[in-house]
Amino acid sequence: MRDSLGQLLPGAIRGSYLAKLTLALLLVVVVVAGVGVNAYVQTDAELDASVEADSLTVARLEADRVGDWKDRNVRIVRMLSKYQDLQHDEPRAVELFLQREAWFLPDTVRAVHVVEADSSAVLASTDSWRSHENTVFADEGAPWAKADLTFEDSMQVHVSSVYTSLGEPVVAYITPVPRRPNQWLVLVATAPSFASSPEKEVGPRIVQLVDADGTVFYDGFGDAVPHPLVTDDSGDLPAPLRDRAIDDAGFLGRDEVGPALPSGHVVGYAPVRDSDWVVLVYTPTSEAYRVDRQITTLVLSVTIVSLVGLLAIAATIGRNTARSLRELAEKAERLEAGDLAVDLSTDRTDEFGELAAAFDSMQRSLRRQIEAAEQASADAMAAASDLAESNQMLAEQREMILVLHRLLRHNLRNDLSAITWNAQVLERADLEPEERQALTALIQTAERLEENTRKAQQIEAIAERDGGDVHQVDLVAAVEHAVDAMREAHPEATITTDLPETAPVQSLLSIQSVVEYLVDNAVRHNDRDEPSVEVSVEPANGSDGMVTMRVADDGPGIPQAEIEPVLEGREQPLRHGSGIGLWIVVWTVRKSGGQVSFEHREPRGTVVVVELEAAESVDVPESQVAGEAAESAADPPERHTEEFQPGESSPQQE
């Protein structure tokens, strides 16, 4: 069949390889051009649908942004109306509150006022000049001030129509002030800006925001706002916009945009939810249908490039090129087989020479990578040996430190016991007042040192625990046992609780000690005659899965100098026992997988917040948790039973 087709060609073409190659490539060019034209015809209809879908998507997105802006303003005015500061009888106090809150409001909020409902006169405002001048918004033509507004409850918010205030279009959000029947809280906001909209950056789109009266109060074309969407001499709007009955997004194509709207654009529009506003998104026709021109250009370009490529290929492909390709293929196969010594150099300077040079560069790179991998392997083996030696040295050093720590703690506690015993013997002697005062101070200092030694031992025990010591315990039971113990230890204090029935958490068994430390610290460092401590537990709310315990007191508060080192884990001299207690609290909670924070309590005092991961159930009995806490709390210093005489420096050390 191939021979019969060849007989149909003229002899000049059959006898020339270049002519046959040129004819074949010409046929390829014709086929490519035909495919391009067919694609252009089929794509034209799809392009219209794509432009419409894209315009509708952007319009809906922009309408949602405006809806979010309105909803946010409604939430803000509702939130502000609930503050007790608005109930103040002094307008100046209310105004100071509004001006303070204004720092935290979005940039689109221009002002917040408290006005009389009957007269719309300003009582307090973030614009203090309005309250000083007794501004009446009805006199300024604010539509909401002239309307007969009624509110079913304090949560209802009335959204005004767009009006001009101080030279710019604004919208007012009005809600009643609770327990102030003749006062309204009014939030005045400008239209949202579309300058930062990611949708606006996709092509040169332009946005307009239009209200129910046909007034444009945001205009991306740059015209001064507000202004009518249609002037008297600009013609009629397309029917969907003219009827104002827009329940869903729509599209105006190339042939549907009337003379009333800017020419040379297609328009996507969408209503803003819960309002009678409409967002118009204009896209220049030249940009929207740019693909149409690109397809035409592509077809022509493919045809021209194919013709030029035909001539170039016919002029360059020959026997030498084919031979060079075969030689390079053979060398590449040897390289693939692992022969890195194959000679890939060439004296050609054209593209085939560059290809051969690339293979040669790859060969050198492979050699370097193999050498580097061998060196890295040797370095890794050496580093592993050094690491093993370092780990062994660190283990020996840690063991030495632990032995030294236990020895020092044992000796220190015995010495403190001797000091306390001798001092207590001296208490029975006939001493001068100054001597007795000094002796009392000595006993108290020894007792504090002994207490700190005990707490240091507890810190060591906590530090040696790992994740395997975490259990599922009932935090409520631990709190109840701890509060009972603290009530017995501090009868002068009032300790109250607010607890659910149960609250299983992931924790160490010594979690009860945490509660005891916090309550004991709150009572001991309270400067009141009758200290008050509140302990509450909040079950997990489902969002973060954390159970929250709060211990609040009415004392002078924990100094920030003690809180920061504990939370940051930095070493710092501990001023007194409460500092060590805070370390024990933070370490125990963190070993349990939780976290600790501190809050200031008004008017005075501190709230310690402990958050622990909630558990599904309890896997240890209450008695075991209580026993762990008792073991941590009651750890007396080691004493020898043998007698020693007053005046001895310490009992015999073991």
SSE map:
Blueprint: H1 2-7, H2 11-14, H3 17-81, H4 91-102, E1 109-116, E2 122-125, H5 128-132, H6 143-146, E3 158-159, E4 163-165, E5 168-177, E6 180-190, E7 206-210, E8 215-219, E9 227-228, H7 239-242, E10 250-252, E11 265-271, E12 278-284, H8 285-288, H9 290-316, H10 319-336, H11 351-427, H12 433-464, E13 471-474, H13 475-489, E14 494-498, E15 504-507, H14 511-524, E16 532-538, E17 546-553, H15 560-568, H16 577-591, E18 595-600, E19 606-613, H17 622-633
Parallel strand pairs: 14-16
Antiparallel strand pairs: 1-2, 1-6, 3-5, 4-5, 5-6, 7-8, 7-12, 8-9, 10-11, 11-12, 13-15, 16-17, 17-19, 18-19
What does this structure look like?
The structure is a single chain. The protein is of the alpha+beta class and 654 residues long. It is 49% helix and 17% strand. The chain contains 17 helices and 19 strands. It has helices at residues 2-7, 11-14, 17-81, 91-102, 128-132, 143-146, 239-242, 285-288, 290-316, 319-336, 351-427, 433-464, 475-489, 511-524, 560-568, 577-591, 622-633, and strands at 109-116, 122-125, 158-159, 163-165, 168-177, 180-190, 206-210, 215-219, 227-228, 250-252, 265-271, 278-284, 471-474, 494-498, 504-507, 532-538, 546-553, 595-600, 606-613. Strands 1, 2, 3, 4, 5 and 6 form a six-stranded antiparallel beta sheet that branches. The chain has a six-stranded antiparallel beta sheet with strand order 9-8-7-12-11-10. It has a five-stranded mixed beta sheet with strand order 14-16-17-19-18. Helix 11 runs antiparallel to helix 12 (433-464), helix 13 packs across helix 17 and helix 14 (511-524) runs antiparallel to helix 16 (577-591). The longest helix is centred in the middle third of the chain and has 77 residues, at 351-427. It is flat, with a radius of gyration of 43 Å. Mean pLDDT is 77; it is low at 196-202, 574-578 and 633-654.
